[in-house]
Amino acid sequence: MNDTDKVNDTDKVNDTDKVNDTDMTAIERTLPEPSPSSKIVGLVGCGVTGSRVVAHLLQRQVRVAVYDQRPGLGVRRQGVVVVDSPDDLSVCDLVVLSQPAPHLGLAERLITQGTPVISIGDDLDDLRALLALAPLALRHETALVIGAGMAPGLSGLLARSLAGQLHTLDELHVAIHGTAGPSCARQHHNALGDTALGWHDGEWIEPPGGSGRDLVWFPDPVAAHDCYRAALGDPLLLRHTFPTASRIAARVSATRRDRLTARMPMLAPPHASGSIGSVRVEARGADAAGGRVAVIAGAAGHTGDLAAAVCAATVLQMLAHGLSPGVHIPGGESLDSLDLLHNATELGIRVQEFTGVARATNW
């Protein structure tokens, strides 16, 4: 690593980048706010998803600084600075956390220093802890976005879009297929063997992981897979963003072998580059006439691409418009979720919506 690529506490910003109010002319004070390309985004963890987030940001002329314990050649490209410590990224305009869980410790340190944070983590326990950082974020007047990946993340954006088609929303059902990389695969493996979480008629339920089999039809080319309850973060975050929903559940696809070995160490190493994945959201409620309605939407593609598109769209929206202090969730009202979904589609996500009409058949 060249010395010029390092960011030190004593030399975090070049002198030419500093702006002093006393040096600004009256004309300079009337200039518009800097464009997103003039800002710096830090990123921790440049794996399958993180490297794709970097690529999206570089294509949009956003400067990026990266910390990874083993940075690959992909991040050593023009415009990317590799730093020696994640704490060096506290000088950035915001920091994306895409390393394996937990994210809590680093998020807490960055927020304490006034640095906005976006986390794409999906570990249930870590998400609970990140939600509890809301008072800290308010106290330090900074923003924390959690669950900005595929699920949670894209699942919340799809849920918000579907909820807008209903007069009242009663139920949300999320199904997930695929993993982004080795760390993501291990997380899903552990989640299948852990206690699941669901919201059922006004109270939390904790069924065993691997229970509640449901055959789910995902968007092409993924098609049908058996899905089971697991320790997934979607019910936790969707409960915060859709408080009127009486039932919220999430399932992950699994084979018989997956269920059998879920409480053991992984028998085979996961694929290094991840797999084709999909997220499917079904919203149930009533239309304006009071009739029961179910609307379904989803997306399929490389799991890392789906997560990276949502994360990059969140970064770009945050750079352009900022966020109020506190904790924010994709799909929540504090974010422009429909704009996020639109921007995510421009970054490669293809949303598919079920438009068929159920027909009764007399036998």
Describe the 3D structure.
The chain is of the alpha/beta class and about 375 residues long. The protein folds into 2 domains: about 5-150 and about 305-345, Rossmann fold; about 155-305, Dihydrodipicolinate Reductase, domain 2 (2-Layer Sandwich). Helix content is about 30%, strand content about 25%. The protein contains 11 helices and 16 strands. It has helices at about 25-30, 50-60, 105-110, 125-130, 135-140, 155-165, 180-190, 235-240, 255-260, 305-320, 335-345; strands spanning about 40-45, 65, 80, 95, 115-120, 145, 170-175, 200, 205, 215, 225-230, 245-255, 275-285, 290-300, 325-330, 350-355. Strands 7, 8, 9, 10, 11, 12, 13, 14 and 16 form a 9-stranded mixed sheet that branches. Strands 3-2-1-4-5-6-15 form a 7-stranded parallel sheet, with helices on both faces. Helix 2 crosses helix 10 (about 305-320) and helix 10 (about 305-320) crosses helix 11. The protein is globular, with a radius of gyration of 21 Å. The termini are far apart. Mean pLDDT is about 85; it is low at about 1-35 and about 360-363.
